[in-house]
Amino acid sequence: MSVFQSLVFDTTVLDGITDPAVRARVWAECFEQIVTGMDMGFADDDARIIGTHKFLMNETIALGEMFSSSFVGERTRKHINRDDEDHVYLSFNIGVTTHIGRQLGREIDIAPGQAGLVVLDASTKAIALNNGHCISLKLPSAIFREWGLSPVDLACRPIDCTGADYQLLTGYARLLIANGAGLDEGGAAEATRHLIKLTGRWLGATDGVRGPEGEDAVYRARLAFIRQTISKQALDPEVSLERVARRLGMPSRTVQHMLAKAGESFSQIVMAARLRRARVYLLDPIYADLPVADIAFRCGFLDVSSFYRAFRAAYDITPKSLREQAGTMSPE
């Protein structure tokens, strides 16, 4: 794991730009380079777009602290891509004004001292009033799956922030933002692991939070990389163990052995990844125009009937019934 990279974006550099739309676009372009793509706008007719972002990043996390005037951030179809879609974005409100998050037909008010979570493979709208102050944390969704948690089920839903775990997490995050750039490679790796453990404990995860040691830690790290690589290619209907093994630089037999040791198989991971993505398509209002058949094919299934059977076996509900519950029925 590499050292942390530190970046600061301050909109005072935009003082020579008077057009609010241009200021918003520049801020959005910076945010996309660091965290993810999103259109920026204004809340409460406040078009100043004033803010400061301090970010600390490595290949695993992106951690930031933001001060801002009011703004509206919206993530739509054009922003969702395979580079960052398998990630979770957490926002911790450490300011004095309430933030609003919308995703998957849900809405949450994030009051001061509270937090919210969104997934980056679905459309999102974030509204922050004047004088916003928050900490943000971007993590791979795979970490949540190792914890036995479903980010989609946590998205835009209340999370308990009353305990000491939450205070420790936000306090440590702010210390890391302020001082993490000075850590060497080993220190950055340990700090990343500690931040992830604190996040898991706060969310009530019971699996994988303590973390393995020694040879088991090496095995778990390699296994996580294998799972992530398989999941990223799972939507390709022609994905194969041999193709993934070549990308990993491992013999196919080694990949099979490592998965079998964890009680898993290549086909199980592919199927789980396809079904997770299909569930987001079905729950997200921006995809309401997509027929179920199109969703099945987009997610790597070769026929609709096999998709229906697999989806119902995994979630105990049909794709159509899930859409009816979520209010995202397609025109079929």
What are the SSEs and their pairings?
Layout: E1 5-10, H1 20-34, E2 39-41, E3 51-57, E4 62-68, E5 71-75, E6 87-93, E7 99-103, E8 106-110, E9 115-119, E10 124-128, E11 132-140, H2 141-146, H3 151-154, H4 164-179, H5 185-202, H6 214-233, H7 241-248, H8 252-261, H9 266-283, H10 292-298, H11 304-315, H12 319-326
Antiparallel strand pairs: 1-3, 2-5, 3-4, 4-11, 5-10, 6-9, 6-11, 7-8, 7-10
Helix pairs in contact: 4-5, 6-7, 6-9, 9-11
In a nutshell, what does this entry contain?
This protein has 332 residues and is an alpha+beta fold. 43% of the residues lie in helices and 19% in strands.
**Relative helix content:** 40-55%
What percent strand?
15-25%
Mean pLDDT, all residues: 87
Please state the second-level CATH architecture of the largest domain.
Sandwich
Radius of gyration: 21 Å
Which fold name corresponds to the CATH topology of the largest domain?
Jelly Rolls
Distance between the termini: 48 Å
Protein described:
- The chain has 332 residues and is α+β, with helices and mostly antiparallel strands.
- It folds into 2 domains: 5-202, Jelly Rolls, CATH 2.60.120.10; 215-332, Arc Repressor Mutant, subunit A, CATH 1.10.10.60.
- The protein has helices at 20-34, 141-146, 151-154, 164-179, 185-202, 214-233, 241-248, 252-261, 266-283, 292-298, 304-315, 319-326; strands spanning 5-10, 39-41, 51-57, 62-68, 71-75, 87-93, 99-103, 106-110, 115-119, 124-128, 132-140.
- The chain has a 6-stranded antiparallel beta sheet, with helices on both faces.
- The protein is globular and about 55 Å long.
- Helix 6 crosses helix 7 (241-248) and helix 6 (214-233) packs across helix 9.
